[in-house]
Specification:
The structure holds 2 protein chains of 2 kinds. Helix content of chain A is 64%, strand content 8%. Chain A has 4 helices and 3 strands; from the N terminus they run αααββαβ. Chain A has helices spanning 2-23, 38-48, 78-213, 250-263; strands at 226-233, 237-246, 278-283. Chain B is mostly beta strands. Chain B folds into 2 domains: 44-162, TolB, N-terminal domain (Rossmann fold); 171-437, TolB, C-terminal domain (Neuraminidase, 6 Propeller). In chain B, 12% of the residues lie in helices and 41% in strands. A 5-stranded mixed sheet of chain B has the order 3-2-4-5-6. In chain B, strands 9-8-7-30 form a 4-stranded antiparallel sheet, with no helix packed on it. A 4-stranded antiparallel sheet of chain B has the order 10-11-12-13, with no helix packed on it. In chain B, helix 2 (61-71) crosses helix 4. The chains are: A mainly alpha, B mainly beta. At the A-B interface, helix 3, helix 4 and strand 3 of A face helix 1, strand 1 and helix 4 of B.
Chain lengths: 287, 442
């Protein structure tokens, strides 16, 4: 996308530039062409150009319907009629005889058919009886199977329910345990934060008291670091101030000792925290 | 409880134990760590108890010390009527009383006669809170030098508490104009830094200008218009012997000693008419031209390392301060950009600050300092017509000439470099101008 945008932007810029170039003092445009003799163009022109008078396409001719075809055979002659009558008589006699034989055969066949039908009916009856017996047998079996399956299913369901119940009980127990645990940790955190909050605010109170009491000499610049070991008694009075590591001059040393004495008595610590007997104060100006 | 939970709770217990271990050192919360990263800029409360009197010229040593310290802006005094007692030695000081009175430090002392008709000033600087003596010293001198002894006491106290060398026992030079009309006289005066103890160095019917101290404090250079022609002189302060070092055609002005005391930077116009900065070698009289531009170039002032010269130039139209090498051919670099008019550069002894006269939008001329490291620009004085800033040798204070009202005579005043504490010097007769703060006295 950005490529396209950039591309189009570049193109636009290029166009703009080009346009500018073009519209600016109108430099003579170079014509990119080759001068060619007009005569050589003549032949080329006729060959390549389409014919000035093109042939009209052939007109479509209307089609004539084809002649209707002749149908049916020619009419019969008298001889042919007589011969046909004789043949018809003979054929009728023949047909009567055949019909008689056919009737006999039909009766025979009917009798056989009836016998077969009876046989079949009997067989079917037997078959049906057997099928009915089998069906009842199967139904009984089926019934028994269904009964068994239902029993099984029930047992399984009972088992599942039992398991579910157990799981739920376990989960509830775990949840309860977790909640108790969380509550416990929250209580602990709260107690800790109350304690540390009180501690922190006490510390910051001491810090601000000393900072407000510290008249910084001009030589107490960043890079100066002095550690004071301050002895305290309950009630917050300063009993001793000794200078530990200190790269400050005498003025810095004086100023920090004076600050600590001027900040005393220090505020009492929060409940449950004994008054510290010792205070380690690091003076380290940051600006 | 699942294993992750158990793990977490174990971790928490571990963290709690660890935190407790950090908060509770072996001695069961018997120790507390405090970090102090800032303080206050208040003046230090100090009580200067009147010194035990000796027959003197009436100089109140304690009052001089108190004036010095409070005038620096770094101290506040406990007034005498609030003092719980008037001890004159450390043994008599009951610290709890002085602490209760609100002072952090107390100074006690005596002025005692010593052999040879001289006086000794003993003092003891005590910390009321620790009960310790921080500094004690004796200064011996003639009766007339009692003020100077007091300034020396101030110097010791100032350094003990601020960490900066005191510059109270130093001298200033300035020009005073006394009398009117035909009686008008120009005086070159040297005085103590607090304006007292004035000594007339030179008096003339013709204008005197631009006194400048040699780095060793033995010589003064100045401009005199004797016989209506400007010339630059060098004069030994103690004996008054003097040498004319430049009386060339045109302007001879604005002398400034190089830090090694061997050269003088001068403003000379020569025959061309436009002033340029030159450097004159005092031993060889060899003159080197430093600037070269068809504009005004004047008021040279050396950087403490002697390598650069700051000067005023109007090459950009209005006067601004530029810096160039103290050798010829360097391209001056413009230093000031804050106001339309900045002139009269004076570099602090540590080379970090540049004091100058700046003209604000209301047309008032005021003393400003520019930090040469950070570029920070600060106007220090109330103004109207403040001129000729000059740093104390400890860099803590700037002296300048002021004319508070149109009809009023010029006075001398000081301002602390933080701009917080200003002070007018002892009123003098006539008009005073062109202060120059001398070096430390060895």
């Amino acid at each position: 996308m950005s490529v396209v945008l950039h591309g189009s932007l570049i193109a636009l810029l290029a166009l703009g530039w080009w346009h500018f170039r073009q519209t600016a003092p109108a430099p003579s445009l170079p014509i990119n062409a080759t001068v060619v003799d007009a005569r050589t163009l003549k032949g080329l022109g006729t060959a390549s150009r389409p014919s000035p008078q093109p042939k009209a396409p052939p007109r479509a001719q209307p089609q004539q319907p084809p002649p209707a075809p002749v149908e049916g055979p020619p009419p019969p002659t008298p001889d042919e009629i007589a011969m046909r009558e004789q043949a018809a008589k003979e054929e009728a006699e023949h047909e009567a005889l055949a019909e008689k034989a056919e009737q006999a055969r039909e009766a025979q066949r009917k009798a056989a058919q009836a016998a077969a039908a009876e046989q079949a009916a009997q067989a079917q009856k037997a078959e049906e009886a057997q099928a009915a017996a089998e069906a009842s047998k199967l139904a009984a079996a089926k019934k028994a199977a269904a009964k068994l399956a239902a029993k099984k299913k029930l047992a399984q369901e009972r088992k599942l329910a039992e398991e579910k119940k157990l799981a739920a009980q376990q989960a509830a127990a775990e949840r309860a345990a977790r909640v108790a645990d969380l509550q416990q940790s929250l209580r602990e955190d709260e107690q800790a934060s109350v304690a540390s909050g009180a501690l922190a605010s006490w510390q910051s109170e001491i810090t601000s008291r000393i900072q407000n009491a510290w008249i910084r000499p001009p030589t107490a610049q960043p890079g100066i670091k002095c550690v004071l070991n301050v002895g305290l008694v309950p009630g917050g009075s300063v009993t001793s101030v000794s200078i530990g590591d200190c790269n400050g001059d005498d003025a810095v040393r004086q100023s920090i000792q004076t600050a600590v004495y001027n900040a005393a008595p220090l505020p009492p610590p929060p409940d449950g925290i004994p008054f510290p007997r010792q205070l380690i104060i690091t003076f380290q100006p940051t600006h | 409880m699942n294993p992750t939970l158990r793990m977490a709770s174990l971790l928490r217990i571990f963290v709690v134990v660890l935190t407790a271990a950090c908060l509770t050192p072996p001695a069961a919360r018997a120790q507390l760590q405090i970090q102090i990263t800032s303080g206050v800029n208040n003046p230090v409360p100090i009580a200067i108890v009147p010194f035990a009197e000796a027959p003197t010229d009436g100089t109140d040593v304690a009052a001089v010390v108190q004036h010095d310290l409070v005038g620096s802006g770094r101290f506040s005094e406990l007034p005498r009527d609030k003092m719980p007692a008037t001890p004159t030695s450390a043994a008599d000081v009951r610290f709890a009383d002085w602490k209760a009175a609100g002072s952090d430090y107390v100074v006690v002392g005596q002025v005692v006669p010593v052999a040879g008709g001289q006086l000794a000033v003993d003092f003891n600087l005590l910390n009321d809170l620790t009960g310790q003596s921080i500094a004690r010293q004796r200064f011996v001198g003639s009766t007339s030098a009692l003020r100077n002894a007091a300034h020396r006491v101030s110097d010791v106290i100032y350094q003990a508490i601020t960490g900066i060398r005191g510059a109270f026992a130093t001298r200033i030079a300035y020009i005073a104009v006394v009398g009117e009309g035909a009686d008008e006289r120009f005086q070159l005066v040297v005085a103590d830094a607090d304006g007292y103890n004035q000594h007339l160095i030179l008096e003339s019917r013709f204008p005197l200008m631009s006194p400048a101290w040699s780095p060793d404090g033995q010589w003064l250079s100045y401009v005199s218009f004797e016989n209506h022609l400007s010339a630059v002189y060098v004069q030994r302060v103690l004996t008054g012997e003097r040498t004319r070092v430049s009386m060339r055609a045109g302007i001879n002005g604005a002398p400034a000693w190089s830090p090694d005391g061997k050269k003088l930077a001068l403003t000379l116009s020569g025959s061309s008419g436009h002033p340029e900065i030159y450097v004159l070698d005092l031993a060889t009289q060899h003159l080197t031209r430093i600037t070269d531009s068809p504009s005004i170039n004047t008021e040279a002032n050396w950087s403490p390392d002697g390598r650069s010269i700051y000067f005023t130039s109007d090459r950009a139209g209005e006067p601004q301060i530029y810096r160039c090498a103290a050798t010829p051919g360097s391209n001056p670099e413009r230093i000031t950009f804050t106001d339309e008019y900045n002139a009269g550069p004076h570099v602090s002894p540590d080379g970090k600050l540049l004091a100058m006269v700046t003209r604000d939008d209301s047309g008032s001329y005021r003393i400003a300092v520019q930090n040469l490291v950070t570029g920070d620009f600060r106007v220090l004085t109330p103004g109207r017509l403040d001129q000729s800033p000059s740093f104390a040798p400890n860099g803590a204070t700037i002296m300048y000439a002021a004319r508070p009202g149109r009809a009023e005579a010029g006075i001398l005043a000081t301002i602390s470099v933080d701009g917080l504490t200003g002070l007018s010097l002892k009123p003098t007769q006539g008009e005073v101008r062109d202060p120059a703060w001398g070096p430390f006295i060895q």
